[in-house]
């Protein structure tokens, strides 16, 4: 195995079920120059340093050679970039404004107060499973749960939630690279979904400006604070970001979580007996099987020396957070799933100014989902291992997770 093809191997679909041996190989060269302008960083302390380095940019316009592979949820969109693709001060302004209606210090209990509603959604999905001989956990649970939650948070009317499910499904599918496939038709379908989503949100925003309600979209639409107010286009980008980027990661967190628990039946049994164990289990999952494996959309604003290597200005920077999460220089016995770890300072939600905005909600969704699945599914078991994975190497998770159980407890 040569250094120069490690990243290509990681991106190959055949390695999706288990990329971790490749990550271990990658860590032998903590800062790897792939020879095509890309620099791949795979060790914990170096990744953490770069995530906090103001000389690292999230704006693709700063790349010396624009384009290249990587996850871009706004690719082909007429919307302006959301704040995850911007640098300070614009990033900070938009993130601060969004945070006023999402969490501390302005709405410190918003996520906590959703707990009962989230529990009702989880119960409804489990009760609707039907035939327990073959359950597709993704289609029947992991996927619809976060979409329903983000719709409720934004204030999408219940009767329109199914439309959001359809748009989210189409746009999520467009993120998966399909080698050998002509992307023209798929891009056309995705662009149509983006346009429909944008038009729907624009109408909803206008309606909320006239008749505000107690929901996040109303608060963002009517916000007037020290940073001013969001334009309609900024509101559209932020809403689309919350729907697509946040939803996709939570689907993978729940699905990877259940897959890991079924592979570790002793931990699953402990969770069944003690739902509070869901908190450390989710933190260890974010280290052990993070829903975002790579952060490929960063670049350097100046030459940066890290790990004995000088990364030149304008280079494409790939931060392999899933490799950093299993760095033996940072975590003892990193290849073992251990929710009893006393120190799980993982990179699962990133770090620094771009740390995951929806982390409190994603944590709560995963904790409730996994604890209730553990409690209610009688003798759950995998029907396929490994399951079929999605194409995307960045947002890594099963496309389907076929399981069975003997019964569903009330």
TrEMBL record:
The keyword DNA damage does not apply. Gene3D superfamilies: Cytochrome P450. Coiled coil: none annotated. Keywords: Heme, Iron, Metal-binding, Monooxygenase, Oxidoreductase. It comes from the Bacteria. InterPro entries: Cyt_P450 (IPR001128), Cyt_P450_B (IPR002397), Cyt_P450_CS (IPR017972), Cyt_P450_sf (IPR036396). It holds the Pfam family p450. Belongs to the cytochrome P450 family. This is Cytochrome P450.
């Amino acid at each position: 195995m040569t250094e120069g093809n490690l990243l290509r191997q990681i991106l190959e679909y055949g390695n999706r079920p288990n990329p971790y041996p490749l990550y271990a190989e990658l860590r032998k060269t903590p800062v790897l120059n792939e020879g095509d302008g890309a620099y791949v960083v795979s060790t914990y302390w170096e990744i953490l340093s770069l995530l906090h380095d103001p000389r690292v940019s999230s704006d693709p316009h700063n790349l010396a050679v624009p384009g290249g592979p990587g996850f871009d949820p706004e690719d082909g969109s007429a919307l302006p970039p959301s704040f995850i693709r911007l640098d300070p001060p614009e990033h900070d302004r938009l993130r601060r404004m969004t945070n006023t209606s999402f969490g501390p210090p302005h709405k410190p209990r918003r996520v906590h107060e959703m707990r009962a509603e989230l529990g009702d959604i989880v119960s409804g999905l489990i009760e609707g499973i039907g035939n327990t001989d073959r359950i597709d956990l993704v289609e029947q649970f992991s996927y619809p749960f976060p979409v329903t939650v983000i719709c409720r948070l934004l204030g999408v009317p219940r009767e329109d939630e199914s439309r959001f499910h359809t748009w989210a499904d189409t746009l999520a599918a467009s993120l998966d690279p399909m080698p050998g496939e002509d992307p023209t038709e798929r891009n056309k379908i995705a662009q149509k979904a983006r346009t429909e989503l944008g038009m729907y949100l624009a109408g909803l925003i206008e309606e909320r400006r006239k008749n505000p309600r107690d929901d996040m979209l109303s608060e963002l639409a009517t916000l007037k604070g020290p940073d001013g107010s969001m334009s309609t286009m900024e509101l559209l980008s932020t809403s689309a970001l919350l729907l697509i980027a946040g939803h996709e990661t939570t689907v993978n967190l729940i699905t990877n979580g259940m897959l890991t628990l079924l592979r570790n039946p002793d931990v699953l049994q402990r969770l069944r007996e003690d739902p509070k164990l869901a908190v450390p289990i989710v933190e260890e999952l974010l280290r052990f099987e993070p829903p975002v494996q790579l952060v490929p959309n960063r670049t350097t604003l100046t030459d940066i020396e890290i790990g004995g290597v000088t990364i030149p200005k304008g280079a494409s920077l790939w931060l392999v957070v899933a490799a950093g999460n299993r760095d033996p220089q940072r975590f003892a016995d990193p290849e073992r799933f251990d929710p009893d770890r006393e120190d799980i300072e993982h990179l699962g939600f990133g770090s620094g100014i771009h740390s995951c905005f929806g982390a409190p909600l994603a944590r709560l969704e995963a904790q409730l989902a996994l604890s209730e699945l553990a409690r209610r599914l009688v003798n759950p078991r995998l029907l396929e291992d490994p399951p079929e994975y999605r194409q995307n190497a960045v947002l890594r998770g099963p496309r389907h997770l076929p399981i069975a159980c003997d019964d569903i407890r009330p």
